[in-house]
Amino acid sequence: MCRHPNKPFDPANEGTPDSEWCALLSRCLEWQPKRGPLVVLAPHPDDEILGAGGLIHDSAGAGLPVTIVSVTDGEAADIERPSLDLIRREELQQALRKLSPVHVVVKRLGIPDGRVQDHDNRLRNAIESYADPGGTLVVPYECDGHPDHEAVGKTSIEFALANGIPIVRYPIWTWHHANPGALAGLPWKRFLLSIDAQRAKVRAIQCFESQLRPPRGPPIVPPHVLTYFSRSFEAFI
Length: 237
Ligand SMILES: [Zn+2]
What we know:
Elements: H1 18-25, E1 29-30, E2 38-42, H2 47-61, E3 66-70, H3 84-99, E4 105-108, H4 120-130, E5 136-140, H5 147-163, E6 167-170, H6 174-177, E7 189-192, H7 195-205, H8 209-212, H9 223-226, E8 233-236
Parallel strand pairs: 1-7, 2-3, 2-5, 3-4, 5-6
Antiparallel strand pairs: 7-8
C-alpha cells in the first residue's frame, strides 16, 4: 500500500527541500543499466525526460535501442485548452530531438489522461510487446501520488517480476510531497550524469512550454519542482 499525504499535493506549494533528498541520495549506490534495449514508460509527455532524460541520452548515444511508451497524451492538464494532446506530443518530439542526436522511437498508446487504471489490459499488452528481458524497463514509481503514474508503475512492476525483466522506477511527484525519512529504506540507486547529459536534459525540459509556461494559470511544473530534475544524477528505485 502506498502512504500518501492527507490532502492532494499542490505543485504551487514549496514542497520538500531538495537538500533533504540529496542528503539521503548521497549515501546510495551508483547504478548502470544492463547493456541492452531501454524501454521507458511515461504516463504523460514530459515524465520520461524529467525522470530519465539523462539515462535516455546516454543509452541512445551508446547505440542502444531506446523506446518511449507514451501512455497518455496529457490532455487533462488543462481541459479547456484545445488540442493540448497534439501540443504535448509535439513538445515531446522536440524534447527528444534536443536530448539525443539519435532518433528515439515513441510508441503512443493514446489512453485517456487521468484514466489509465481503466485501461489496464491495453497497458499490459503494450508492456508485453515492448519489454525485453535483455534490457531494462524504466517506469514511474508505483506510489508517486498521481493515479496515472501509480497505475503504470504497478502494472509494470507486476509484469517485470512475473517475467524476470530488469526494472527501475523513477519518482516524479514523490520528490515534491514525500518525506525522505519515510522512504529511506527503499533500494535507491544513482545514475551519474555527464555534463553533456545534464545540458541536453536542461534543453529538452525547456521544450515543455505547455507545462512550464501555460497561456493561463500557474505552471504545472513550476521552477521549484524543476530543481529535483536538475541534479547531476538521476535517482531510481
Ligand atoms: Zn505525469
